Amino acid sequence: MARSDKRREPRFDDDDDGELRAERRPPPRPRARKKTRRSRSLFGALIYWSFTLALWGAIAGGGLAVYYGARLPPIDQLAVPKRPPNIAILDANGELLANRGDTGGAAVRLADLPPYVPKAFIAIEDRRFYSHWGVDPIGIGRAIVRNVTGRGGMQGGSTLTQQLAKNLFLTQERTLSRKIQEAILALWLEHKYSKDQILELYLNRVYFGSGAYGVEAAAERYFGHGAKTITLSEAAVLAGLMKAPSKLAPDRNPEGAAERAAQVIAAMAQEGHISESKATTALSHSARARSDIGAGAINYAADYVMDMLDDTIGAIDQDIVVTTTIDARMEMAAEGALKQELDEKGAKFGVAQGAIVALDPTGAIRALVGGRDYSASQFNRAVSAKRQPGSAFKPFVYLTGLEQGLTPESVREDGPLDVKGWRPENYSRQYLGPVTLTKALSLSLNTVAVRVGLEVGPKAVAKTAHRLGVQSDLQANASIALGTSEVTPLELVAAYTPFANGGIGVQPHVILKVKTAAGKTLYQRKNASLGRVIAPQYVAMMNDMMRETLLTGTARKAELPGWNAAGKTGTSQDFRDAWFVGYTGRLIAGVWLGNDDNSPTKKASGGNLPVEIWSRFMSVALKGQPVAGLPSGAWRSETIALPEEIAKPMDDLIGLFTGESRPAARPQAARTAPAPRPPAHIPADSPDQPPVAAASPAPRDAPPRSPPPRAIDDLLPPEDIPTVGSIEQPRQTRGAPERSVFEQLFGGG
């Protein structure tokens, strides 16, 4: 076999030792150089791939930002949403009663806050607020380290600007998409607004729990005063709420709130926002949340203000301040009187609910309590519950009789009565025989009220009640005299007001003025009335008659030392409703008690619990006010002395149904005031028609009683107030066109 020419044969060199060797190879490189070269290769690869990953991460992050940013409105269309308007409701003296609206409080300027308030939020939520651009990478890194190591608890990396962006534009969900959008919006906010503007927006928009949005609402909610007067310890509590508003609420978790507030104060001291001495003082005087958390009776008045506001200024698109007629002191007195009486005696008398309304002689609502406990029931019984007034309706019956020629000394028969099978009777089922109208009203005798109502006509009675201020529909039948048509407490008290102010009809009102937060007037109430609805002489007669209710009648429990007061009790059938409406020259107040399901009470009547509540309230409400008498005066001209009959012309008609003969006539002398009478015996627990022993009427020849002296500031109606409706003058004779039987029974003419 031939050898290849390219084969290399071993070469033999002539060495000294004669040893045969093969061809030598190059010596190998040292191992150290190989390791260095390999390390340089790994480091370069690490840099390369880090850069590559960072680049791709940036591209991916940018892509996500573009993707989720595209789902936001265009930047040029972004705008901070308008803050929901707040309605601040003030009492007549400018004291804040309540806030209404979605935020629960008004907006406040940063410059109006104590400087430690914003610093508390910065110290605990965003220490680098004034140095970052909306997103704080250092803060995020610090939060990650603390979360990984477990030091300092779980930390969040969101800045105040990010939190504001979330509150303004986004939902509360915890997702990657929301965090990306939050960062984008934070950068936009930082570009568009200054740091102080962002901080002011933040303090007015964030949620503090319990329905309070913004620092002003939170300060009112938890501490009972505005943010402008907030203390350092209170500011620390509010700043601490940002971590968990519901969990750390100071009214529900005072220990947790105090612990978190201590952390806020320590952070403020660490950042140099406060001195160590101030921190020590704040820690030793921890903030205390108020115990009454907005469920008081004042909310009934605030709800009524909101109802009236819709008709007063219409739609609300900015913060407004509403000044009302409510007196905070009277409101508290009314709430306390009702609650205390029902707590003490409600179970005994089977009464679960009540309402109080108080008006001044102009119709301004001074106190309004719509129920026993607002937190348990927000139904406003003072303005919305229609109930039978019972005998509290009788003043309208007797006023109608006076306007048709009767006087307080006119005598009518208290005896059994049958009107087409209906037999009204007194509570005691006892009868006094001939009595004056004054005595019949003070003792709340049903048969006399029905007789007078039939005499003047039920339609005339309904017309009188409507003229004085009753708004509800009234059934013009024979039973109207006993208050069988339902009314609300507010309208009944309003209808009594002309007796206290000299005969002027009023419009119950609660709003005095409305202004914007900047001070622009949107509404100002002007003095207005319904004009004269009762002639002065009839006002005097009715006041003399209703004074007897408190002196000798069913409201003898009413105690108001030093004041000349009058009023009327009322109890509906089966003791379902108990009323008392009483008044002085300064204040008219009505009390209703009963049950929401209209179930009977355990003999609660107008003469017991309502009178006691009224006395308790009025003694506080009138404290410190100058005493004012009730309008009074001569009943009629002294030259008029017409004989009147015990039995009215209607007795002939009633005899058609009862079979009774017409009583004999008796003369009656003209007088200026009723003569004093000894008080009748009235059991303490009797209702409006108490059992009384039969007694003879007061002597006809008793000397007249001089009218009480008038106070200088008594509310005398001006002469130029126009007359509203038909107010009849005193009649010189009893002559009148004859009416048919049905017209006289059920109203006619």
Describe this protein's structure.
The chain is α+β, with helices and mostly antiparallel strands and 749 residues long. Helices cover 38% and strands 9% of the residues. It is built from 22 helices and twelve strands. It has helices at 31-70, 116-125, 137-149, 160-169, 176-192, 195-205, 215-223, 232-240, 254-270, 276-284, 298-313, 328-349, 381-384, 394-403, 437-442, 446-456, 458-468, 489-501, 536-551, 609-621, 650-658, 741-746, and strands at residues 87-90, 96-100, 320-324, 353-359, 365-369, 411-414, 433-436, 511-516, 521-524, 566-571, 577-583, 588-594.
Could you give the distance between the termini? 157 Å
Q: Which structural class do you get from the secondary structure elements?
A: alpha+beta
- Beta-strand level of the residues, as a percent range? 5-15%
Q: In order across it, which strands form the biggest sheet?
A: 2-1-3-8-9
Mean pLDDT: 80
- Total number of beta strands: 12
Number of helices: 22
The geometry reads as elongated
Which range best describes the helical content: under 10%, 10-25%, 25-40%, 40-55%, 55-70% or over 70%?
Answer: 25-40%
CA radius of gyration is: 43 Å
Instruction: Please summarize the sheet with the most strands.
Output: 5 strands, mixed
Query: Which consecutive residue ranges, at least 5 long each, have pLDDT under 50?
Result: 16-20, 637-686, 689-749
